[in-house]
Amino acid sequence: MTTLTNPSYIKNNIMKNNKAKLSRSHQAIILMQQAKQLFESNNYNEAIQYYTRVIDLGTTLNNLAYTLYMRGCTYEAVGNIEEACIDWNEAQKLNIVHSLGVDFVEEALSKYQVN
């Protein structure tokens, strides 16, 4: 399958010096997938760099909220709670409602809020 909906096709074309021009959205999705893999492999510092690249690239509000949330989780994993809370607060300001109705950002922030 060689369409823009196939992630391996998109990734291969980015790696081939962008022979097929991809939208920022597609590039952001690839970077988010790579960041998630790095996070799951406990490569937190590299994951932070990939999440930051997504933010710098610009993406949809949903992807931005997810990226800020995940970068916050990654900061939390390396013990940088201050940066984690900054990202979670920024994600919360976007007012994106999760499709399952769960406010993961609020749950993350509640761990560190002082009453």
Instruction: Tell me the helix content.
Output: 55-70%
Q: What structural category do the secondary elements indicate? A: mainly alpha
The residue ranges in which pLDDT falls below 50 over 5 or more consecutive positions are: 1-6
Q: Total strand count, please?
A: 0
Largest sheet: none
Question: What is the CATH architecture annotation?
Answer: Alpha Horseshoe
- What's the CATH C level? Mainly Alpha
What is the CATH topology assignment?
Serine Threonine Protein Phosphatase 5, Tetratricopeptide repeat
The number of distinct structural domains comes to: 1
Q: With helices defined by DSSP (H or I, 4 residues minimum), what is the helix count?
A: 6
How confident overall, as mean pLDDT?
82
Q: How far apart are the termini?
A: 53 Å
Q: CATH superfamily membership, which one?
A: Tetratricopeptide repeat domain
Strand content: under 5%
Whole-angstrom Rg: 15 Å
Keywords:
115 residues; mainly alpha; Serine Threonine Protein Phosphatase 5, Tetratricopeptide repeat; 6 helices; disordered N terminus
Could you give the topology of this structure?
Elements: H1 7-15, H2 24-40, H3 44-57, H4 61-77, H5 81-93, H6 104-110
Helix pairs in contact: 2-3, 2-4, 3-4, 4-5, 5-6
